[in-house]
Amino acid sequence: MSDQAAIQIQGLTKHYGKVRALENLDLDIATGEVFGFLGPNGAGKTTTIRAIMDEIRPTSGSASILGMDTHAKSVQIRRHIGYLPGDLAMYPGLTGKDTLTYFANLRGGVDWGYVAELQDRLEVDLSKKVGDLSSGNRQKIGLIQAFMSKPEVIIMDEPSSGLDPLVQREFQAMMREVADEGRTVFLSSHTLSEVQRVADRVGIIRHGHLVTVETVAALRSKGMRRVELELDAHADATVFEAVPGVSDVSVGNHHVILSFEGQMGELLKVAADRYGIVNISTQEADLEEIFLTYYHDEKAAV
Amino acid sequence: MLASIFLKTVLDRWKGWLIALVSLLGLLVLAMWAYNSIDLGVYAGLPAVYRSIIGISADADVGSLSINALVASYGAMTLAAMAFAMGAASIAGEERKGTLGLLLANPRSRTQVLVSKAAALVLLTTLSVLTLWAGTVATAAVLGVSIAGMDVGALCFHLLLNSLFYGFLALAIGGWTGNRGAAIGTSTAVMVVSFFAVGVLPLIKGATPYLKIFPWHYFTGNDPLLRGVDWGDIGVLFAACVVFAVVAVVGVNRRDLKSQSVGTTMLDRLRSNPMTEKFVGRLAGSARVSGIWAKTASEYQVHLIIAGAAMFLMMGVMLGPLYAAIPAETFAAFDSFPKEMIALFGGGNMTTPEGFYQLETFGMMLPIAVMVVAIAIGAGALAGEESNRTMGLLLANPIKRSRVVLAKAWTMTLFSMLVGFATFAGVSVGSVLGRLGMNIGNIAAACVLGMLVGLVFGTLALALSAGIGNKKTAVFGAIGAGIVLHMFNGLGAISNTVADFVALSPFHYYLGNDPLNNGMDWGNAAVLAAICVLLIGMSVLLFQRRDLQQGD
Fold first, then answer.
1. Which range marks the domain in which residue B391 is found?
2. Of B240, B259, B278, which marks where a domain is finished?
């Protein structure tokens, strides 16, 4: 990973009348990294991507890709980027091959050997009409289209939607290879497990505001754990919610499941004071839980 | 019947019907006002053949003239088109959008869905006809136009059945095949051909019995405005509607529903055949995706083929021998007519083949044919790709937005030229076949001007599409402007007040200087070309400035 920014976003703001879709977003994405842009539906991920693609014009702020302003130099920029829009739509009457040829012609040609390689890896039939393909297979054509010119930056909005798990794994490998070659991948997602496997860093966005940017490693190292306690009596959620570092509590009959960040002794002391502990199991929380925790914190703050 | 589907269909569609009605009533007011200000005595003396073609009865007066023009022709075509668009959308349209499966996932039968949609069609058509009836009577009363002795109600009753005929025809074809394009295409063809036949067949000896083949005959054939309801005609139209409804119900229940698929075309079959693979593959595959304009061309080739073929065969080749077959004495009365008076009716002096062609082919059909193609491309070009959500993908390539606009504008211009050329070829061949001896250069001039005037509205659709990004607004805006400006120009010939302003209508620069007789008017051509260039320039500027839309 080099330090020069592949994508720089400064104070990006987009209002639709009274709706504030994006509010003063700052973000730097380094060359050679895979960056995951996370957020729930309607958080502003697609608005951000459409703005840096010059599809929509920001109310204020600006962005640059490879040092070029995304609006003023939009045509030059697009020589260097591959793009997969969210909720992909293509021309239903064209075959996969025709579709790729069309975009290849607009780009001034591609390496068809590489296209064949991508086609093999993703296992898609290019001779069928796009309108006759399943949504997953359509998505694969969209992916080939984004990767085929070996662009320096690949921007993808919810790229894995509709892909089966095997293809998802292949697609993740493709993204890692791009980053290993020193090229950059910027993808948005709400499926965190995918980003967890492939991204170097993640940015979390909510209600048009960037909540945090962290490396995946740092997020994990927050030491959050998922704890499951089996007790000898009916559990009371409020008892556990009062413990500092506890979040996301759910109680069953004699069970409590919660996320916990901090010294385990504190938690066990509270539990042992009130109940007899029958069994305890604990595991490292995955990004999904960390992510939910961020949201809970945010909600509490709002 | 399902109230929710019925209601949703009505709510989805009522705006379109309302816009059509308001435009029609607006035009009716304009027409009554204009006819009111001229002396109509001349109509009575017109030869019967002429009146038959322009649809005027012998005892014409202000009321019957304007009602015939607005209710029985413009209005009837508009309402029939609204009805068949709705009929085609009912089943086939939902299949194409991929929403029919979702609808039928609810515990409701295909028949129930179909009946609910048909009920919505009947309701909207009935309400529209009632509104048109009330509007006509009210307009006449307010403007002091006499409609005594005219049975507007009877005409409207025929109008209702006529509109429903086309609605149910499209419903039946869409229901049976699941193909929306086939439903709209067939209904349009039946409507245009039968409208045309009802005007022309009475002129040919011995052809009258064939009128009964054409549905339009049961609408106006027995002149319900003057003679009241003809229950035999009503019975025929009603029976046809019932048959179509049965066909639709049986058809939609017997077949597999289509998913959001695109179907297999003739070209696809040729492409997979080893014999023709290479050649057709180039034509349908690599060539059509060689660039934006080529791809746009391949998307609209069906429009071009239909418009071009209709102009070449029906409006061109066929009319020459037809004119030659009409006995010369039919036109004898024209000789005694002063020139000014002939000019009053759009210049179609039928004692000459030029006048005949002007009335039949050039007056309305050529601009309409070019407009159909050019507006479809202009509106679909930008707003269409946005509502299909492909514009983002297209513009992710290293091309300027202006290049997209210009490529699409070029396809539109090329296709308009091809429609103009098909007309030129057809009329020239028709002239030779009928031994009419028309001047080839003059035919070419009229075709060039007709192509340009149609292109004006295509580029208007492009500009609306570029500025607003909404396909429907672009289509209706351009068509609406076309109808109003065409009417306005026509009224200029009969009203002095309007005549002072006809220079505002692009149609004035088309036939204003009688190109079929006088040849090319380069000044007029320059005005029309300049408007097109201006609108294309505006499209480029507007499209560069705004946010792209996603979806409808």
1. 287-552
2. B259
CA-nearest of B544, B346, B374, B398 to B462 is B374
Residue A278 contacts by C-beta under 8 Å, 6 or more apart in sequence? Answer: A230, A231, A232, A254
On whether residue B278 sits in a domain, the answer given is no
Q: Alpha carbon of A131 to those of A45, B263, B506: distances in Å?
A: 27, 9, 41
pLDDT of residue B126: 97
**Residue A42 pLDDT:** 85
The pLDDT tens digits of the residues spanning B465-519 come to: 999 988 888 998 998 899 888 878 877 766 777 778 888 899 999 988 889 999 9
Residues of B in contact with A91 (CB under 8 A): 295, 388, 390
pLDDT at A1: 46
The confidence score (pLDDT) of residue A201 equals 93
Write out pLDDT tens, residues B387-442. 888 999 999 999 999 999 999 999 999 999 999 999 999 999 999 998 999 999 99
**pLDDT of B41 over the 70 cut:** no
pLDDT at position B241, please? 97
Two structure tokens written together for B7: 């209601």
Task: Indicate if B163 and B297 belong to the same structural domain.
Answer: no
CA atoms of B169 and A103, how far apart (whole Å): 41
Contact B415, B297 (CB under 8 A): yes
Instruction: State whether B91 and B227 are in the same domain.
Output: yes
- Single-letter amino acid code for the residue at A264: M
Q: Is residue B14 part of a domain?
A: yes
Dihedral angle over CA of A120, A125, A130, A134, nearest 10: -90
CB B12 within 8 A of CB B120: no
Query: Taking CB atoms and an 8 Å limit, are B388 and A83 in contact across chains?
Result: no
Tell me which of B211, B240, B259 is where a domain ends. B259
Task: Answer yes or no: are the C-beta atoms of B15 and B310 closer than 8 Å.
Answer: no
Q: Is residue B240 part of a domain?
A: yes
Q: What is the mean pLDDT of chain B?
A: 85
Of A56, A78, A89, the CB nearest to B396: A78
Set of chain A residues whose Cβ sits within 8 Å of the Cβ of B289: 94, 98-99, 101-102, 105
B-side interface with A, Cβ within 8 Å? Answer: 260-262, 268, 285-286, 288-292, 295, 299, 388-400, 546-548, 550
What is the spatial distance between Cα B194 and Cα B215, in angstroms, rounded to a whole number? 6
Q: Please check whether residues B255 and B291 belong to one and the same domain.
A: no
B394: closest CA of chain A, how far (Å):
8
B48 shares its domain with B164: yes
Whether residues B242 and B293 share a domain: the answer is: no
Domain check: are B422 and B512 in the same one? yes
B202 lies in some domain: yes
Claim to verify: residue B251 and residue B382 sit in the same structural domain:
no
Alpha helices per DSSP H over B469-521 = 471-492, 496-499, 508-511, 515-518
pTM of the model: 0.76
DSSP H or E run through A274 = helix A264-274
Inform me whether the C-beta atom of residue A145 falls under 8 Å from chain B C-beta atoms. yes
Tokens of B359: 């009335």
Cβ atoms within 10 A of the Cβ of B552, count? 11
Number of domains making up chain B? 2
Angstrom distance (rounded) from CA B444 to CA B441: 5
Q: Which residues pair with A156 in a beta bridge?
A: A84, A187
B278 pLDDT exceeds 90?
A: no
| B226 and B299 share one domain | no
By the 10 Å C-beta count (0-12 exposed, 13-18 middle, 19+ buried), A261 is classed as middle
The total number of residues written for chain A in this structure: 302
pLDDT tens profile B84-133:
999 999 888 888 777 787 777 777 888 988 999 999 999 999 999 999 99
Q: Sign of torsion, CA B423 B429 B434 B436?
A: positive
Q: What is the pLDDT of residue A69?
A: 94
